[in-house]
Amino acid sequence: MAAGGPNSGQPQFFSRAGDESFSHAPLIENTETDQIVVPDKKSWKNLFAYMGPGFLVSIAYIDPGNFETDLQSGAQYKYELLWIILLASCAALVIQSLAANLGVVTGKHLAEHCKAEYPKVQNFILWILAEIAIVACDIPEVIGTAFALNMLFSIPIWCGVLLTGLSTLLLLALQQYGIRKLEFLIAFLVLTIAICFFLELGYAQPDVGEIFYGLFVPQLKGSGATGLAISLLGAMVMPHNLFLHSALVLSRKIPRSIPGIKEACRFYMIESGFALLVAFFINVAVISVSGAVCNSPDLNKEDQMSCSDLDLNEASFLLRNVLGKWSSKLFAIALLASGQSSTITGTYAGQYVMQGFLDLKLMPWIRNFLTRSLAIVPSLIVAIIGGPSGAGKLIIISSMILSFELPFALIPLLKFTSSETKMGPHVNSLAITILTWIIGFLIMAINIYYLITRFVHVLIHSDLQLAAVIFIGILGFSGMALYLAGIAYLVLRKTKEMTHLLALTTEESERLSIEPSKTSAYNLPSEETVSMQLPQRIRTTNDVN
To answer: Which residues cross the membrane (predicted)?
Structure first.
């Protein structure tokens, strides 16, 4: 049902509790939008209509940043850190499911919720942090693609960085064909990455027993292992992915009934679980190949030196020397597929963040150009000045930044999905709430511990004068206090009360129908949000299949 205010240029929509004629009211009635319509009937076949967003999200778990940290993990600690990948993947499934639920239930993605929830100054700070996280995620993708082009076609790294800007044109070309075509492309690229690394396993032949031991027996030996563990965690659970997943689920037009929303949440969790399982196997394969190759007794001194400081570029030469030319080519193809698919999803995340936090409506090519430029400029500078080794170090730094930025996306997500005033009957259960907060606090505790210990270590072993050490120490610990204060603010701040569309009582619904001008569009996805990814026409699952 549509109800518009007297001076409203656009119709507003709401559902009336207890009235079947309104319980399945569509989320958006706009025939110009290419949403995939899910039938209003219970059937396992509906799962196919929901397949897609999880694969776009899973790309962030197998991007070049992950490959870099996976390679170093295997080279330095063999299979000892595989348990981090297992834990991070399980945590990622829980967290990503919450992000999907937020979008499905409320009709708004995470960035839009943050804008509605927080005051202007805090909202602006969260936007800046989100943009930094997206740039930190984008840098490994740009550098990884440049490395892949260098491996396959001997193109200089800095030229490869510039060429990655063409992915913006690819994204714009894909947008005209709708979200389904993009999802199929990403799924194909994920499959390509999986095939390449499973073939690499055949070349490397790692010890299966040792792999299982590393997966299920936690080990963390030394500060170096702690640093790599945090890098693995930062590369696995990415803040921009929470914004992205909560927005991508809006590409499905679901029945706006309580059973319909529950089914959507359940199927999105299944779909995300399958996609993340594929990503998990790929990460395990990368670490296993690296661990088997770098711990081989037949390595010469040159290859041993490569393993001591392994990056994406060195990995290609190492694989070629140890396993053969085809192994190196397979790695390059997988890296290229990973980099290109990651740039597409990263650009989408940048669009949603900018639109959600700032309500900034730009032409698509301008949004894409801005997002890509923020990553290309620092990558190009480092590639020219530092060369391949400098670019490889930049990837590790980017992964660390992502890990430290995660609380500023994760805490709002946990707060919103645990709020009955926002989620109505679909609020997190007590068990899920406790589990997710434990996961969040563990991640934050590990980050803070590592940050403090590394900072103190640098200060103690620096060659600076005592006055300089004291000054830097004051600045560093002041920054840490500010970091903790920001986390505490997000945790302790009371959630703003906003009634969920399906949590309304009959009396409230009748009042809203009498006073339509007061109807909140808070629970409805904005036309700008949907049109960023879905151009032309409404389709049903029959069209999809």
So the answer is: 47-62, 82-104, 124-149, 155-172, 184-204, 224-251, 272-293, 330-349, 369-388, 394-414, 426-452, 464-492
